Amino acid sequence: MKRVWKEKLVEWSLRWTASISILIVICIFVFILKEAAPFAKHPGLSELFGFRWVPVSAQKESFGIIPLVTGSVLVTVLAMLLTIPFGVGAAVYISELSNSLERELLKPFIELLAGIPSVVIGFFGLVVLVPLVKSCFGLATGLTAFSGAILLALMAIPTVTSISEDALRSVPRSYKEASLALGASRMRTIWRVTVPAALPGIMAAVMLGTGRVIGETMAVMMVTGNAAIITFWPFDSVRTMTATIAAEMGEVAFGSDHYGALFCVGIILLLATFGLNIAAQKVLRKYRMS
Amino acid sequence: MEMNKRTAQSDIVLVVTICLLIAMLGTAVRAAEKKLLTIKGSDTMVHLVSSWAEAFMKSSPNAEVAVTGGGSGTGIAALINGTTEICASSRDMKEKEKQQAKEKGVEVKEVVVARDGIAVVVNPKNPIKEIDMQQLAQIFTGATARWNQLGGDEEEILVFSRESSSGTYVFFQEHVLKNKDYTPKAKLMPATSAIIESVSSDRGAIGYVGLGYALAAGDKVKILAVKADANSLAVMPSDQTVINGSYPVARPLYLYVGNKASQNAAAFVDFCLSDAGQAIVRESGYVSVKK
Lengths: 290, 291
Description:
The complex is a heterodimer. Chain A is an all-alpha fold. Chain A has helices at 2-44, 66-97, 100-115, 118-137, 145-169, 173-181, 186-215, 218-223, 241-248, 257-289; strands spanning 53-54, 62-63.
């Protein structure tokens, strides 16, 4: 009897530890919505769709988040353009072509890259990468969206590589054997059979990588120049949503319009990463079933 | 023999443990005796306030001072919310903020503890040597976009500013831009050092930093002489020109103390205004409030 109770208790507390993260996510959503709500009343959500982000002004404050959204989108797209070939390429090599010694060497180093704190990567970017980008492309300044994208790619590649590699490895052996038996070369087998079979997993990897890139703050803030302009040119400065929150939240007066606007930016950011994560999970699940 | 050795060893371990415990207890008691004084605010002033804090802790050993930056706005917000006793600020408190403080029952005392010149810095390769206030305003609002419009090189002007949480940002906006908005193309840098770094590497760059930082940067940047208007003399920022008011981009630096602050806080402010405190002001590259 006693033992049964004990087991019940353990099970119950384990259930709590498992579900607490759900609770925390809900709390975060509620809190952020609550802080952003006054902004919807005054000055109103339409203010958010403006083209100027001028939160501190003696003339007229404007909280148009379009430059911030385009900034985040530009940096993210550029970063993913760099990440996908490197990340997926590395995964293909590690899972299909490398011998075991190479794999033992490559995997820990790629994982190590994931462990470098973003502020360290940002500092590296400011001191090494920014002058390099400036001189390579003959720019007036290296503080550009492109520099930010390179740093973000560095951070996303490990995520994309390790998840893609898992996907490639779980392609059934019989697929490859069948292809090889039909006389296809090794390369042909990889590109025509293994990679297409693992494609849903690779897509999920890319989505999770994108989520990481959108949410990254410190490194981006240090190298993108933080000018809130609307641009799709990689060698302009941009101001991302994350950098805006990080730079301005410290100073803002509680309950002011600016404060509410920053929470609105937070909601958009949260929805973006949330959407990407859910999409990635869905793709992964579908892939496991097939 | 074996046995003895073992007991001797465990004796040593015991003695060491007891010593450690006593030491820990001692520090704990000492820490409890010391009253922690928190000072928060301006990034520009962090270096100065830390130097004061060090000297102050030496002169009154049972005071412990913790200094953090974050920007003047951050410090003022912390003072209003009662999370800091003293706020260091490089701009004066706005009426709105004083009102907020009053609503929370905090009466705030304002003390000018030093003066600071804001240096306008450009890349050392830039041929421009002086600039007037109106030209500065045009550059930072984006009306002037190229250096050749000011008689300089055929080069685009890259505007560097601090983030909007900085007291220097607000001061520069009020006094130089005459309350107009910065150009959206201005690159907002998270720290003064990042401005110095960028201005020293980019030919077309212009930025503003505290005089102390500009002097410390040495040859990395060129400090411009500033004219109050097109017809007046160009003045280089220095102690003298900041005190006598001939350098136009200068400001007072404040400490704000709440009425509920401890005795230590009052003693700290007195210390800052003392001769020893003002000597530290000069050493840190700022200008003393006493002549």
